[in-house]
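Weekly modeling sync, notes
Attendees: S.R. (lead), two postdocs, one rotation student

Agenda item 3: backlog of single-chain predictions. S.R. asked that every request posted to the team notebook include the full sequence so nobody has to chase files. The rotation student volunteered to paste the first one in as an example of the format we agreed on. Action items at the bottom.

Example entry:
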Amino acid sequence: MSAIPIPSLAPVRVLLLEDADIDAHVIENVLGQFELVVRRVSRLSDAITALRTGGFDVILCDLGLPDSSGLATLETLREHGVSVPVVVMTGRGDRDTALRAVAAGAQDYLVKGNTDANALVRAIRYAVERNASEARFRALVARYELILNGITDGVLGVDPAGNIVFENPAGAAMLGWRPAELIGRSLHQTVHHSTPESESSMHRTLADGSVECGEDDIFQRKDGSAIRVEYTAAPMVDEQGRIAGAVVTFRDISKQKQMEQQIEQGLRVASLGRVSASVAHEFNNLLMSIGPSAECLRRKAAVDPALEKPVKHVLDAVRRGQRLTDEILRFTNPPEPRMRQLDLAVVLREFRDAAHGILTERRMEIEMPAALEIRADADQLTQVLLNLVANARNATRTGGTVTIGAAPAVSIPFLREQLPDAERFAALYVRDDGCGISAEAKQRIFEPFFTTRKCAGTGLGLAVAFRIVSQHGGHTLVDSEVGTGSTFYIALPR
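Predicted structure, as returned to the notebook:
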């Protein structure tokens, strides 16, 4: 084996695993001409010991050793976690062994006597460079995985056919899937099937490479429930400019939309309040003029029995009108709360008798908390509870159950989902086993004058409660579906 030395590109440290002295001498001589640094060992166990100290770029390995033979040598190196690339140089030249050696992790397979010096050095350098490239690629992949895993928005990648090829944990969790469960599934059929595929933004992105955005769209979770999302679909383009797929990033905007609805509702309430206050004042003036006249007629009814019944109707109507104007004015011009330290356990204990008086022919349960302190106006808080309990009575049949209780908001799953800072709040709740509330009614239930009761009710009870709780810096929320009863939560700062 002869060679013409060429300048070394970089110092390469070779661990030569060869038990034949003559072969080892020839190889060491050739590699020395190319300024490769060689250390020779003759047994696999000695090689493993040497590798523990580090300092090698490549292993040049014979497969016939005193303490190992064949592909078992490669398997043993792999079992010991050897990451240094291995080039096999052996006397066996059959193709099957070569293929199996490469499959077992060898970077190259050379046959003694059929390999010149340049081919040997080239195979060693290629093995080192290929291993370094693979290490850089693995580091790059690991870095991108760290980035994907750290992104709180959902990320899904699809191939040109629209099938999911990668995901991040946040995206899978947001859609209710376990990691890797989404891989291989059609994105459209899995999470966006509420829109015809030909009309979906993903279809346009894969078709013409356009960047598509959805500011308020619906994705489906694994359990079939809907999630409101804001998303962007951007194409992945290869070096030839062809569309190789797309990346979809999305975020859950359900809470954001809920807050927008609450703000919109607050603006509507404020507008209605200004109008209703003006109307209430004028209406109250009319009642004040009707009342004295009706009283005069009532005195005449003592001598004219025919007047008694109509006069009674007039006086009853005046009283109902005055109660209504009182409620409207209380809603539009609520007094400033007089805040003081309150223990919700004490509040519920004192409220028990009043609740009994309202919940006639209903079963009442009190879930008493441990000491749970807030700052609130006791009278206004009692008014809120009275409104909620009255609504619960109206929603339940005779013999139904109404539960009144309090707990830290963070201990209630529904409030943990709805309130990002649930640990800051304590919650009062009133739960009934009545007919429940439709999704449409829930959107408007805290609006003034909105009521689902056709024959009674002013629609101001919940609006007043909402206003009072807002003045306390709290939140009024309802958890209900038709047929499952309702729970109203009053979350107040602790």
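Discussion: group reviewed the output briefly. The longest strand covers residues 226-237.
Action items: rotation student to repeat for the remaining queue; S.R. to check formatting next week.
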